[in-house]
Amino acid sequence: MTFQEQIVQGIPSVLPNPKPYDIKRLADLTTQTEINHAPKRKEILSDDEKKLALKNALRYFEPKHHAELLPEFKAELETYGRIYMYRLRPDYKIYARPIHEYPGKCEQAKAIMLMIQNNLDYAVAQHPHELITYGGNGAVFSNWAQYLLTMKYLAEMTEEQTLAMYSGHPMGLFPSHKEAPRVVVTNGMVIPNYSKPDDWEKMNALGVSQYGQMTAGSYMYIGPQGIVHGTTITVLNGFRKIKKSPKGGLFVTSGLGGMSGAQPKAGNIAGCVTVCAEVNPKITHIRHSQGWINEVIENIEELVPRVKKALEKQEVVSIAYLGNVVDVWERFDQENLHIDLGSDQTSLHNPWAGGYYPIGFTFEESNDLMANNPETFKQEVQKTLRRHADAINKHTAKGTYFFDYGNAFLLEASRAGADVFAENHIDFKYNSYVQDIMGPMCFDYGFGPFRWVCASGNPEDLAKTDKIACGVLEEMMKNSPEEIQQQMADNIQWIKGAQENQLVVGSQARILYADAEGRIKIAEAFNQAIARGEIGYIILGRDHHDVSGTDSPYRETSNIYDGSRFTADMAIQNVIGDSFRGATWVSIHNGGGVGWGEVINGGFGMVLDGTKEASKRLESMLFWDVNNGISRRSWARNEGAIFAIKRAMETQPLLKVTIPNVVDEDLL
Q1: Is the pTM of this model over 0.85?
Q2: pLDDT tens column, 44-63
Q3: Residue among 551, 592, 568, 595 at smallest CA distance from 197
Q4: Is 213 annotated as a binding-site member?
Q5: Is 135 one of the annotated binding-site residues?
Q6: What are the phi and psi torsion angles at 236 (to 5°)?
Q7: What stretches of 138-182 adopt beta strand conformation (E)?
Q8: DSSP H or E stretch at residue 382
Q9: Does the annotation list 107 as a binding residue?
């Protein structure tokens, strides 16, 4: 069967043969020879719940297949803690094909298929056979039947239908209209009192809910590039904060997974020495083979002199230490090796299921402990977090600037009893990067991670869009107010260096921090270029980690100080507003970045096809998508946001936003 025929087939009526758990990768996919599999999930279901999980899985198949599949699915559940339906994994290569290669009746639906496959590309996904894109548990689907059925629905979809996605499950195609979103995605939207980590483990094992992370479950992940720009801005402004040039400076952190893998590349772009620790050998060598890190060192005895030499020569180099980051912090303290910037970007939103590993155990020993003795594993993780925090405290006493990278490091460290609280025993002693950098410098002014994907798959289209975007920004900067000149300059520098920094992994995609004005003008310039036949269709999106999309009290909205940090009105308003203003698809998730139950976040995708209708949609939706967040930040009395929303009202007479009155502190 051809690729198109397999897509249209959906779940096959004749079952394919079982597939082996481990399979050699093809040479053209990556230099690695083995799949990076998800760790076994802990045993959490009762016997009755296991039966329910099996019934839930078998409902995708005709009764004639149940007797054959039942023992197989039972074995998967017992062996891996989940039913992934490995047998149904397609034989064709999964990657972002050019849009014309997808079958279908609707170009918008084809674009969504392209983005789904990009999320599951072996070069992009963290655990591709388990349909997990990044973050250890950020899933596109829970099983392969969901993938096959979703792709079939998209191939059948017309512009008068909308596909409803319930936590990876395609509920079905429903009648709608041409201006409606083609797909509406929800992930993990459980009743609040049932949003603890074990609730997720149970519901995920039952196959009824999933953790979509941010851009995994909304089909908008573009590989590590997706966070490189924001990480570069963070590192640059971190050095500005301590009034030191990155040249000859040292940045120490950890994590080389999906999102955290961006850190060494960002360090190189910023121009410092970066040491990033990672315990997983496979992902470390994948990042090295992809060019995201320069060197891999496996021995702490070799690491210390190498870093000293790099600092002495003011090299711009990124070094992966294959081992636990606590060893790095403790050894650098003993050697009195000064760290300028420090952070952590392990997946601590998922601390008990592979997001963070304890010191004193090999990677394999940790995985075994995690699955077979979860309580001991938890104790060892918390013990490691206490040591980790103690080592950081020693460095900060010597002048290191440490910031929480929004990965729940301080939150989980505090729950472990680590010394991370400020003197008032309420706040943390270290701010998050959003509080110190991204919030006041970017989000309050409307700058966030706008992104686009060239649906043609043609690198020449990406180069043309880079040039278009740069030209728009340079023209805008001529009349930009002083308050945003630095942001504009950083963004122009970024886009000019995008090609040489080789940021593409998977689809021909680009990320660029821009405000509402910039996003609208860049998108309109793309749409005009499509109309002229200069480039193919463009798929717009953004990271959920943005001005308006995410309510996250310890990250995106950590610089909201009016007491509303724990409310989620902004994210819900965002996705509803995007839906009727022209988005091609929308998504809303529980969890993402900092963990299940800790955040609500929403995103969108929009297809530009060169039409007047696309111009109308992009102007309406992108304006709302940013200014919804600015207005909330303004109401919280954030100075930059008050400036930004007043400026927005001057340009759009239909915008009328309530401006806060500030109370005199002396009067209080």
Answers
A1: yes
A2: 999 999 999 999 999 999 99
A3: 595
A4: yes
A5: yes
A6: -60, -50
A7: 138-139, 161-166, 169-175
A8: helix 374-396
A9: no
